[in-house]
Predict the structure.
Amino acid sequence: MPQSKRHPVVLGAIDLGAHSARMLIAQCGPAPGVIEILEDLNVSVPLGSNVFHTGAVSAGSIRILCDIFENFRLKMQEYGVTECRAVATSAVREASNAEILLERIRHATGIRVQLYEGSDEARLNYLSVTNTLPETCGFDRKKAMIADIGTGACQVSTYNNGSMTFTETLKIGTLRILENLSGVSSVASLRDTMTPVIASAFSDLEQSGVDLHGEMLVAMGASVRMLLRMYFRNSGKGEITSDVCRITRKEFESLRDSLDELAISETASHNTVRQELAEAVMPCAILLSELFRVTEARELLIPMISLKQGLMFDFANEILTGKDDFEDQTLGLVRSVAAKYRCDTEFLNRVEANAVFLFRKLAKLHGLGKRELLLLRIAAILHKCGLYLNNQAYHKHSAYIINATEIPGISLVEREIVSFTVRYHRKSEPKAQHHNFQALPGETRGIILKLSAILRIACLLSLRGITAERLKLRTDGDRILIRGEGARSFPVSGPTESADLDYFFYVFAMQVILQ
Amino acid sequence: MRKNTPRSEERFISRDVSWLEFNARVLEEAKDPGNPLLEQLKFISIFSSNLDEFFMVRVAGLYRQDPHQPQEIYGEYTYRPEELLKKLNKRIRELVGSQYRTLNAKILPALRTHGIYVANWEELSKDLQHTAKNLFAREILPVLTPIGIDPSHPFPLIPNLELELLIRMKRNGKEQFAVMQVPSNVPRFLRLDDSEQPGGIFLASEELIAHNLEGLFRGYEILECTPFRITRDMDFSIDEESIADLLTEMQIALQSRPKRSVVRLEVAGSISDVSGKWLMKMLDVSRSQVIRINGLLNLKAMFQLAALPGFTHLAAQPMPPLASVACEDAKSMFTRIREKGSFITHLPYESFDPVVRLLEEAAEDPDVLAIKQTLYRVSKNSPVIAALEKAARNGKQVTVLFEIKARFDEENNMRGAMELAEAGAHVVYGIANLKVHCKALLIVRKEAAGIRRYVHLSTGNYNERTARQYTDIGYFSADNQLAQDVASLFNVITGFSDPPQWGQLLVAPYTMLERLLFLIDREARIATRNNPGHIILKVNSLIDYEVIEHLYHAAENNVKIEIIVRGICGINPYALSPRGRDNIRIVSILDRFLEHSRIYYFANNGAPEYFMGSADIMPRNLRRRIETLFPVVNPEIRAELDFILRTQLADRRKGRRMTGENLFSSTIMQKKYESTRSQYVLYDYYRMRYLRFNDPERMKKSRLTVFKLKTEKDQ
């Protein structure tokens, strides 16, 4: 909910990454976009090296993290922080004991850490880029790629005229590469060993048929910023002062070719840069080389903004305005996915519009919010993508396609809601033997039932060629009367339609009458 | 004169050799007839006190090293401990001799003419001897503990820096020794006359005891009673990487101090060979460690006489701290800082009260959420600690970094730290292997417009006592960028965060050295013969040889370098080419206040940069301590700093010029330059500013020192 706009609010943002735990405390508002950083903390903890090596966070690291988060809690108390958002990225996401770690932190400090997916990072990357890049860069007018080079993964997202067309998490982070190659490769031959590993990951992506070309390449991540700082220092340009830096392909190539391990470790000792960050520079440079190759971009843009800053911008925006600036991107990407599975765009648009109409008109009945509306729209757009595989039980195919698709802007639980909404938008209602559904929390099941009931009616109306502009809806006791103005009468003709109306009655105890 | 000086072969001046010359300048203040007599006496004490510390730390350190093994300092520059000790020993003996000659031949006789007699036993009349004996029997005898040394009573543990008596005696034809501590809870100088006039006749306590031994050693024939005093190695380090609790380890380390090795033995010049050799054997000291004194031992005690009441005509004229014009009204400190923007207070010309007031207001203010402060040396009953305790009790989040490793103040600091912790403050005892020397205060306050942070950064400690003696500059600000840096600094100190990318602050050991070298090199890069660069450094010590090399390079490349340094100075301009040499000017000011502020100025081709802070240019400050330098951008403050620097550079009364390798000009005969005496000029400047602000009418009538700043051309 948006906060009072008369006073600024003090917010906390925590990012638990592979190398360190970081926290920002910022004073935000009262006007949207006004953010004053009060505290910026960064504590090293070798999570990535634990997880990429052993698969789990070590007991020692858990203890250290509990202490760090307790310090964070104290710091938030010191500033009277009213709300905090804490996220954990790839290292924790992949740890076999992630749940235990997060629970230990919650128990020790009261801070709830949310697991951040690659798609969540893609969302933050977009918000950070659009908040930082000047208009003149033309992100909204070009084909562009945003690549977030992390320690455990590289999140690659493509945009066309400012709309997201693709995103994927590649499991090739800087630290992961170093950890995987340690003991296998000598320091001297590290570069030669890394290059084919990285090239292979990108080759898979290219073969999947995704259009990766872009005039603009935007790279993010601590190692990228570190590489840039080294470039600035070594070329006598001094310290970086601007929010966004540009480096041409030629400049990048000469920087990459001049890197050697000894220079990197010397950089670390001389510039008081953390050693692990300095070491990440080499794999980062090779990753960037590949990105240049696949995009064929001539220039690299680097916003000097970290994940925690992006997180804070997003959080503050949500608290102060109640808006999600990324919603359009999510829907844009979902439409791209629907197009990929050759869905009928016109029909989907009609279903989506009808679903939105019904959702809004029946707000009192279902009691759901804006977030659920977004999920309903996604379900409406993707409900037919299973047809691409098979006409039989396509709702089930749609459901698992959704489950296998990275959808930035929604959480994993939300994706599951979308998936089940699509699963139950036709044919049978949830049954006792549907274990996956029954295993969900009651509240989630309730949302799915409501959304799928609405989607069924929206589909039913759309099949009859009715569009939202021509719909009228009113309630009369325990009946909902829906009329398509100017349309032919649409009597319920078959058993399918009847089943959908019965399903709606089953969920809402209200009978839908189509007039 | 300077141009004729031959080029020196020594590129740097040794830290310890340079320090001794600093103490020689302290001694010169005792010889300056322009100084009031009691002021001269005070400098006699300071000289001794400084020397004690030098032995406990520096000389002790040299003794711990392999005497023949060359010790690396910087690059190819090394020294051999044995040679250096020899050199130091020679100079120390010269200086101590000079100190006693000054005291005995000049100051004590002059004091007599003003009614202050420091007598020896033989000079006392029978009546006064009788009075003295009564005093002895009544107040001293009960607290004496003589210890006879024999096979069943081994030589006792002699405490560091305490005055002792060695008694050689005889019974049944057999000689025996005893030792006895002169009680430290008895005044060193006992007044014997009953006159109501100020001053009087004083007898040293050891002299009184030495002449009243009969009752203590009955049956013995006293052959000799002679005072002695030892100095122990009091420098210690703790392996901080491997300890769990620094506070406990410090307590253990302090407890072991009395047993540390003896590095100096001071004995009376009249001590017999027998007694001297016996003492040397018992204390395990060599002949080179023994210093024979012709006069009273432990002249630190002269502070007692220098502070005698009733002699204002013999003491320095009072210069009470003035109220700061920036805080001189009923408005709260927070309002002042918010409205006025950044401002400075210059101690001891101006009062330390604004800091205490800010803390006290913060302690009571319901809008204050948190207070963070570094404390390095605190006084007993410190109002700073009292305010912090009150704040903690009032529910504020109080975080205090107590640097318990501050040398010779460890015990005071540990006590203060424990008191604060009991009040509920979060007390941190420093960082492993890094001494926290920066002086910073941060207050987080919730206001109508949101969170605002108030910062006080200083060149000196939060100690209201030294604030009356040391020249320091405190900087008040609510600048958000600076506050964020200070907040980060506290996060680093308290272990809440790794070092960040600093915005405004230069922080050692992370970015300060690199940045300073950059600023020096930049000056050299842009300077030309027609457009010379300019650097002014006002520091207590300048001995980091890497920085010095960069300064040399700058001086050789058309950068004029002016250095105001109180103490150690490792620069030897005479090792440079004539052009480089002429570009370096070094001034050392020693006067009634201890010069302590650090100001850095870089001309930067017309876009000057100013910094102030806690850091001297020493390896320990730049590499092994948490130190800060903060930039000053406010034009008014910059103008004030300009005035301070120019005033000090123009001081010919107390500003000694380096005139040769480790040689400084004397100011003993410079009374004619009294009008350039920078500390007096600055006091008048602040007094005038205060009057202009508070009482313009009175200001018109006020007599101010006439002082005309010399331009660079005049010089």
